Each structure stands twice: as C-alpha cells, then as structure tokens.
C-alpha cells in the first residue's frame, strides 16, 4: 500500500483538479456511494474530503470518517456540508470565494438581459422560420430599470457594479444594511420585490434562506416583474414560482439553479416566459481552473501544516 494521504471525493470533480489530487493523494472517487464495502475498509484512513458546491457532506458521513482532518469544497457555496458537525470535530471546511465573483455576476446580467430582451426566444424565432410570418413581439427595456438584489455579498456587489453601467436604480435586501454599500436597503425580500422591475437572487443556500422567495414575494414583484436566480434552487419556493409564472403573477424568470438538479420540472421547461441554464454561474474554463487550484491549495496547505487560504467561518 502506498503511504500517500487518502482523500475521498464526494462529487464528480473536473479533470484538472482530479489530476492534481491524484498526483499528491490516493483519491477514492465517490466509493461511499458506489462501493459501500470498499468504503467501509478505507473510511478509517480518510483524512480529507473534497466536495463541490452541490455535494452533500452530512453529519452521518463525517461520523464515518474518524481520521478526517479537512473538507475542501470546490465552490463558494457549502450548504451541502454540515459545517457545524465538522467544526464540532475540529475539522475545518474551506471553499473557493472571490475567484468566481466575475463569472456569476456576468451570468446574472446575461440572464437579466436574456429574459428582458427575450434573446433565447428571439434566437428560436429566427431558427424556426417564424420571422417569415412577421416581426417578433416587443421586449422589456433593461437599461434604467429598477434592480433589486437579494444578498449583497461579494457577488451581489459585483452584480450591482455591472448594473450601474446600465444606469439601473439599485436596491438590495440582506439581514441588515451593509456598511459602505450605497444602494437603497429594504428589510426583506417582499418589500424589495414590490419596489423593483428585476429581482436577482444571490444569497447563500441552506436552512436560513430555504423558500425565502415565496408566493408573497412573487406577488409583490408583480405582473411586470422578472425573477433571476443565480444562487441556489432552494432559496425559491419552486412550486410557488411555477404557479406564479402560470398565473401571470410575474412576467418571467431566468434560472440557473433548481431544487433537484439536474431535474427541472417539465412544466417549467415548456414555458415561454422563462430562460433556463444548467448551473453554469462559475462555468468558464478560467474560473473553474482557479477554483480547482484553490480547492487543491487549501488541501495542500492543511497537510503541510500551513494556514488555510479560505476557511469557512463557524
Ligand atoms: C459549483 C457553485 O460549485 O460555487 C458554487 O457555490 O454552485 C458552483 O460553482 C460548481 O457548479 C461545481 O459543482
């Protein structure tokens, strides 16, 4: 047996990261799911877990890994990891903040423009020959519109920064007003939704935000309002959103994230007033490589006894 440190990958990781990990460690790739017997044999030796933004690392799994020392998440979101359970054991959790801010903000603006100007629908209109029968219906102007941002962390501020170039009137909601943020503060999502044309959701997932965008918030957004979600599917009450879209309670939605990915309800996929993308917020080669490098560097720092680069707070 090699004397390499053993780590468990709990998600399918990009080849760039997998190669780096394999050069340094013995990597057990999702064997806790695919081969429980083999997992039971190696579990006592596993010292690191590598996850991604969607993967689950519940208390139960942490409990099966007595030698666990560190959990490194490939993603800024770590709502799948039971951080409390890890920290109780003295196991630090790391994530990949900052390096994906630009990409997620770019996509948020891209989705906003796509749903406002109906770009995917217009593309389809040309491809299927509908243009031959006359012009397409008019869209909604984006420049100068009122933008509400749910969550004004690093990515929320990157979205606002871009929206300024579109001369948007920007407001936000967060648990409390954020010092140094010059935009109008609303104490909750419902009040914010009532005041804007576009509501962009970029708040962390997890129990604290589950179902935060509910029927009342959507009603407040109103029949001329659009919802954009680049956060987590769980932040939105998905059945309530589908009902609101069907009833015309809101004008449309652009969604990069869903409750049960990669499953997207058929009813949503058939709607014309939505734009749907497959969780690609951070999905550029450049950013995914930077995330992979940071995921690896956190692990390497831990095993070298050096300070972690980007640990998650308790
Ligand atoms: C995923 C994400 O990690 O950063 C996050 O929180 O959701 C994404 O970047 C990515 O899709 C890899 O699974």
Automatic annotation (TrEMBL):
Alphabetical list of Pfam families matching this protein: 2-Hacid_dh, 2-Hacid_dh_C
Domain D-isomer specific 2-hydroxyacid dehydrogenase NAD-binding intervals: 109-281
Listed Gene3D superfamilies: NAD(P)-binding Rossmann-like Domain
UniProt KW Transferase keyword: no
Keywords from the UniProt entry: NAD, Oxidoreductase
Domain D-isomer specific 2-hydroxyacid dehydrogenase catalytic per the UniProt entry, residue ranges: 15-312
Family label: Belongs to the D-isomer specific 2-hydroxyacid dehydrogenase family.
Designated name of the protein: 2-hydroxyacid dehydrogenase
């Amino acid at each position: 047996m090699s004397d390499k440190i053993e780590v468990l990958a709990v998600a399918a990781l990009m080849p760039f990261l997998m190669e780096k990990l394999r050069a340094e460690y013995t990597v057990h790739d999702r064997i806790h799911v695919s081969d429980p017997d083999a997992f039971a044999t190696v579990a006592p030796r596993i010292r690191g877990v590598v996850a991604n933004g969607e993967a689950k690392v519940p208390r139960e799994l942490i409990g099966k890994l007595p030698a666990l020392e560190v959990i490194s998440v490939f993603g800024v979101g770590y709502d799948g990891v039971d951080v409390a359970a890890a920290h109780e054991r003295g196991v630090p959790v790391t994530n990949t903040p900052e390096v994906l801010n630009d990409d997620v903000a770019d996509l948020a603006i891209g989705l906003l423009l796509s749903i406002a100007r109906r770009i995917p629908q217009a593309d389809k209109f040309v491809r299927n020959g509908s243009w031959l029968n006359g012009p397409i219906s008019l869209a909604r102007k984006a420049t100068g519109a009122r933008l509400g941002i749910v969550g004004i962390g690093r990515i929320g501020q990157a979205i606002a920064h871009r929206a300024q170039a579109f001369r948007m009137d920007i407001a936000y909601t967060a648990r409390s007003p954020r010092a140094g943020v010059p935009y109008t503060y609303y104490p909750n999502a419902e009040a914010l939704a009532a005041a804007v044309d576009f509501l962009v959701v970029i708040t962390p997932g997890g129990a604290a935000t589950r179902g935060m965008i509910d029927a009342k918030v959507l009603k407040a957004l109103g029949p001329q309002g659009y919802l954009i979600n680049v956060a987590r599917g769980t932040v939105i009450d998905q059945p309530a959103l589908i009902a609101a879209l069907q009833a015309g309670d809101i004008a449309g939605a652009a969604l990069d994230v869903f409750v049960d990915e990669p499953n997207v309800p058929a009813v949503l996929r058939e709607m014309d007033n939505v734009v749907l993308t497959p969780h690609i917020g951070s999905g550029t080669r450049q950013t995914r490589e930077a995330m992979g490098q940071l995921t690896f560097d956190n692990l390497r720092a831990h095993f070298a006894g050096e300070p972690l680069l980007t640990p998650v707070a308790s």
